[in-house]
Amino acid sequence: MALQEYVSSTYGDRIAELYDSWYRDEPDTAGTVEALTRLAGPGPVLELGIGTGRIAIPLVERGIEVHGIELSEPMVERLREKPLGRDIPVAMGDFGDVAVEGRYSLVFCVFSTFFCLPDQESQLRSTWPASSAASRCASARRRPTTWSWWPPGWTRRRRRW
Q: Residue-wise pLDDT tens for the chain (161 aa)?
């Protein structure tokens, strides 16, 4: 695929079928769920880029009401295949553009998904409306030390760019 053909939904559309098997044993999942559980207050939480529910479903298991925004229909189809994913409200669209209604105790984005937006303006545009409807906002990204497939020393080289 040429880069010119890449759009915001390309990642989710192409990886949806494999996503759960690839990230089933993601080392940061449990810690992320624990941290988000502590941050969530009373009322629903909103996940930007909810995907197949890797984070949302464990939160639902803990009694937290989760809503989501997702651009990729194949990712949401995978979410809906899971018993606890069937009833999670999901607004379809790019979370950089989808307007949210209501108030959330927490708005969050994990797994470097926030950086899928093409530029800083889009990132600010995505968080501004959501943050005005939330008590708290959080963004979690993977720690490079947990990416075992990165070559040794890659993070040191990356910092010099």
A: 555 565 566 666 777 777 777 767 777 788 889 999 999 989 999 998 899 999 999 999 999 999 999 989 999 999 999 999 999 999 998 877 777 778 888 888 886 565 556 565 665 555 555 555 556 565 555 544 444 444 444 444 433 33
Other CB atoms closer than 10 Å to residue 136's CB: what's the count?
Answer: 15
Task: Give dist(CA 64, CA 151) in Å, integer.
Answer: 38
Residue ranges of the alpha helices (H) in 24-146? 29-39, 56-61, 73-80, 120-132
Exposure letters 111-131 (e unless 16+ CB within 10 A, then b): bebbebbeeeebbeebbeebe
Beta bridge pairs of residue 137: 107
Residue 4 to residues 1, 8, 12, 121, 146: CA-CA distances in angstroms?
A: 8, 12, 17, 20, 31
Nearest to 56 by CA among 72, 36, 38, 39: 36
CATH top class, domain 28-143: alpha beta
User: Do the beta carbons of residue 11 and residue 52 sit within 8 Å?
Assistant: no
